[in-house]
């Protein structure tokens, strides 16, 4: 049976425990997410902005019960939440069901290139033990289409963060929330493991600086209006996903 690309091999309990330890609010304010939200806001400025109830579903709400009536929102805005979930499809379904007709969903999460160079330096090519993997934007877009969202647009942008020392780079990575992978090595990491990570980070040094690469995946889609719903019942109607990478030539 083929694995669902939106089901990630992370332990939800570990995610919650690590976010509590570091403060989910502090994680949400991490420079990685601040940069990502700034770019999401830039995209929002070019989109017709709906009027009405809005819900910000961010990292700080992870694990908290959310009580919202179906079809009650004109907009859902999410920065980073999807990057901490084991089941993205369930949350996308929740969002789509809470949007009113013609309501707007906008979100940003991490893409599969995030910290991939560090994973390679650690010998974790599959990103299953030390560095979490993230879904491809095409799979997220396909899920939005499957949920009946209208005119989904997905794009990606790569950000680079630089550090003078491996210690400062490691601190920034850990501030994101730690390693929640199910197959992570058991037990507490000791000094030998810390030294190995620092050595791997040094491999990423170029022109005097350690460089961490983050792939941000941006998406927006509309809840279908009544006219679109009628068209959707026509089997001859296609529902394309628009792929609009900002700098896709920069692999």
Order of helices and strands: HHHEEHEHHEHHEEHE
The CATH superfamily label reads Vaccinia Virus protein VP39
CATH class: Alpha Beta
Name the beta content range.
Answer: 15-25%
> What do the pLDDT scores average to?
89
User: Which secondary-structure class do the elements indicate?
Assistant: alpha/beta
The CATH topology, please?
Answer: Rossmann fold
* Helicity range: 25-40%
Terminal Cα span: 30 Å
Shape annotation: globular
**What's the tally of helices?**
9
Largest sheet: 7 strands, mixed
| CATH architectural label | 3-Layer(aba) Sandwich
Low-confidence segments: 242-251
List keywords for this structure.
251 residues; Rossmann fold; disordered C terminus; 7-stranded mixed beta sheet; alpha/beta; 9 helices
Task: Give a written overview of the molecule.
Strands 1, 2, 3, 4, 5, 6 and 7 form a 7-stranded mixed β-sheet that branches. α7 crosses α8 (about 190-205). This protein has helices spanning about 10-20, 25-30, 30-45, 90-100, 115-120, 135-145, 165-175, 190-205, 225-230, and strands at about 55, 75-80, 100-110, 150-165, 205, 210-220, 240-245. The relative contact order is 0.19. It is globular. It is an alpha/beta fold and about 250 residues long. The protein has a single domain (about 10-235), classed as 3-Layer(aba) Sandwich (Rossmann fold). It is built from 9 helices and 7 strands; from the N terminus they run αααββαβααβααββαβ.
